[in-house]
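Summarise this fold before class:
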Amino acid sequence: MSHIPRKRFGQNFLQDQGVIADIINATDPQSGDVIIEIGPGLAALTEPLLARVPQLHVVEIDRDIVSHLQQRFPADRLVIHNADALEFDFGTLARQLKPGGKVKLVGNLPYNISTPLLFHLASFGDVIHDMHFMLQKEVVDRMVAPPSTSDYGRLSIMLQYRYLMDHIIDVPPESFYPPPKVDSAVVRMVPWETLPHPAHDYGLFEELVIAAFAQRRKTLRNNLKGIATAEELEALGLNPGDRPENLGVAEYVSLANWLADQHPNRLTARGS
């Protein structure tokens, strides 16, 4: 197929056979697995996945690529959902395909929508067994970063709250057509069976993290002014002089749970 990559869809097509094999091996598809691929593109992952499973579902927004895939693969083996992954209901599809079970997600995600897509997928964790995604390396570094590092931030906290994550491999630009201007990486995301640090009010927890990182170079004392006093932070075992990146997921959840139980309206009041 002669397809001109579309910038508005963030299309960079994987073509390195070694990298493709590494991703398939990391995904470890079994014959009984239900797999949904996001952004199949020119079928670099689609074809080897179909060699391992009897049927594959894909979500693709580009109608030209959909037409190509329909001509290339039998409809009973490749089920195509012509849709925007940012709006697609992966939960409903997963429950239809594997009632009471969980599905695997895999894909070379468009880099221009990767962060909002990751947050969209977070709401379907209860029906997902694992996810293997190709992303911009800079994003993967932020996803897996530990506290007190320059890459650690809101994305790290919100994803590590829900997932156990591993940086699998790095992928150079020449592995794609056209080569992107950035390095890439593959990440494995496995939803926690039981959240290690459950928030009493997830929305409040999320708002707290946003507030804490509003000005990254400032201290918690400054960023959380009106939310928690220095004395209250100290009583919770936190250092008001720390910067937001110094706190781990457990500490943010602990602070959010204290707010939810003792002062649930402080964040709302501060923003009004």
